[in-house]
Sequence to fold (479 residues):
Amino acid sequence: MATEFIMPKLGLTMEEGTILEWLVEDGATITAGMAVLRIETDKVESDVESPAAGVLHRTALVGDTFPCGAIIGFLLADGEKPPTAAAPTSTTSAPIAQAPAATTTPVATSARSTDGRVFVSPNARRVARERGIDPTTIVGTGPNGRVTSVDVRNAPTTSLNVAPVVAPIVSSTGHVLATAAARQLAELLGVDLSLVPYDPADGRVTRDGVAAWVRARLTSTQSAPIQTGSAQQASGSTSTAQPLAPASQPPSSMKKLTGMRGTIAKRMHSSLRDTAQLTLHMDADLDAVVADREARKAAGGATLPGFTDYVIAACARALRLHPIVNSQVVDEGIALLPEVHVSMAVALDEGLIVPVIKNTLSLDLPGLADETKRLSSAAREGKLALTELEGGTFSVSTLGMFGVDGFTPVINPPNSAILGVGRLRDEVVLNSKGKPATSKRMTLSLTWDHRVFDGAPAAQFCKSIVDLLADPAALNSAI
Fold:
């Protein structure tokens, strides 16, 4: 009997996924746990593994977006025929009729699907944009004539620096694909995606395209501002989308505020707009931590914790002592969360990502060091699962490696606070005999939501972290 292959739900907040690439050809025999396709959610790209063995029968196309649980294929026994079922329904909602006429007649030598869409992998499309090459003019060597990134890199670069124009990426239902960010913005503003032209350099309706369409409507009509039903009901007022001022100089280049950078911009702006954030700074004496770390290094064996690991361990225990900090604002009030999951910010070339150390209190220092190293490596290699980015109750961000003493971190919603970690520095102090001596110091910067708790509780929480760092033996045992 055929086994249904469905769009998985990879995290609590995932509602739908877009198929970026089938990693296995249609009709191939696969095994359980084998990576079959790559999908995009609103947060990450992830490989999807097969739940069982069988012969793959694909019913969904690259570029289509489906809700979690939708059937996108079947796993068949040898000789078994696929079920006669209706094609899965995609949630993509911008019709091809909106494609600009000037971009509908590219010269293409690569293979095309029955609906006229060129088979180009997402990575190949990205490389083509960077090199200024139209991927529809390249003969693909991938499965079914698909244009791969290798094909693009091997293609002549005579068209370098010429803005590429691509055909619209069309779903099996005849609609132009819209990016997740475009769908989110359109839903927020109440915009019908069918009215927004696709991006000729991307092949999809993009967030920038939605924003440009809205600005054009506001400029041309000078009418009442666009608003969402939920925002209007909540505030009882309207909000105007103001166009940004043009560049003060002719730019040397432009970088789109999309992808990870766009997500960060949206979340940080929302965080500052929707919360009452204040920041305090407090110095911590790390002489005991330095001595503990040197002793561990001399003993060898277990993974050597970094200074940030000590801070994360202290934060987790301070959150147990001050439960109001381990909380979030919900419609009903302030929800105090029973479990402690500390997130740590990891800097990438394209932005910032915040993986979560689940059940932080259950780890001793070597175990915590192992987990932070694993998450950091997975983040830089793009191998984080969606579940590893969800559920954080408090965040730690460090800029100490860049020589920064103190800074003002921005709260990562829906958390109520975040701790910034500065550099470890030598500072002259007076010892118990009143004589000058040096001490290892570190500045901690706590930003908290003043709606949730006030300055005194914030200072008490930060002081608890400082006290715990003065006694690293208290950080070594799991709770």
About this structure: Confidence is low (pLDDT under 50) at residues 96-111, 158-163, 222-240. The chain is about 25% helix and 20% strand. The chain has three domains: 3-76, 94-229, 263-475. The longest strand covers residues 417-430.
